Amino acid sequence: MKAALHFLWISLISFQALASIENIPEETIEQYIELSGIEEMIDSMPVQIDAMINQRLLTAENPEVEKEVMLVLTDAWDPSDIKASISNHIQNNSNNREISELLEWRRSSLIMKITAAEAESSDPLFQNNLLRYIADLQVSPPTPETTQAIRRLVVSTDMVSLMVEMTVQVIKAMMSAFMTAESENGSEVTVDINKEINSMRAMLTPQLEQQAILTSYYIYRNISNDELNSYSSFYDSTLGKRELAVVSESLNVAMSLWAEKSAVAIVNNIERNNQP
């Protein structure tokens, strides 16, 4: 599930009334976040943010301003705050039965094995190892059975939509931050962020679909086809869809808070620099 994250809002709403009357112990939520791989994803996000911003700096018209914005964005990503936001959302939008069942499932040997495999995506050498593996696939392609199992996994976990949404949320935060900086510096800003983001979603979807499949070949290379199909079957179930919906929504909320915090920090920095 970590390999991506967005979806199924109707399912989320249908459980809202039941979830709101239960109080899930904080330690239970913490166990779930640890076992699900969410915590590792939170900790690795600054590296991904840096990579995206550094790429933008290559074509920046005002690199000094953009470097300042880059520092604000990375400083604003506080893993403790992000984790607290996600924990609160999961606690307020789940119930004890769901979390208990998810914990039991995540403690199974198969899911522990898969979560460990997914954790490789946080390794600093992951990208280099992935590229070498993809090159090897051209010489020794996967079997049709493996291709079918991987494609089913990508669809069942809604991996492409989740990857698109996470990427869009980071880019949206970056665009908002840069536009805030330019506006505060006296530049006229006329970009319609929502229009830009909608165009970006359409462009990113086919690109990330290919990336999701190729990355999954590498991440799950030591997972058998039967194990992959078992994993996919869970996410075809009601509980699996619930997990994706709640976690996706919690990440979107946390990303929005990060964007707001970044914008406030940028305004404060510029006002401070403009003081006589």
Automatic annotation (TrEMBL):
Signal sequence coordinates: 1-19
Keyword Signal: yes
Keyword Signal (UniProt): yes
Keywords: Signal
Protein name: DUF2059 domain-containing protein
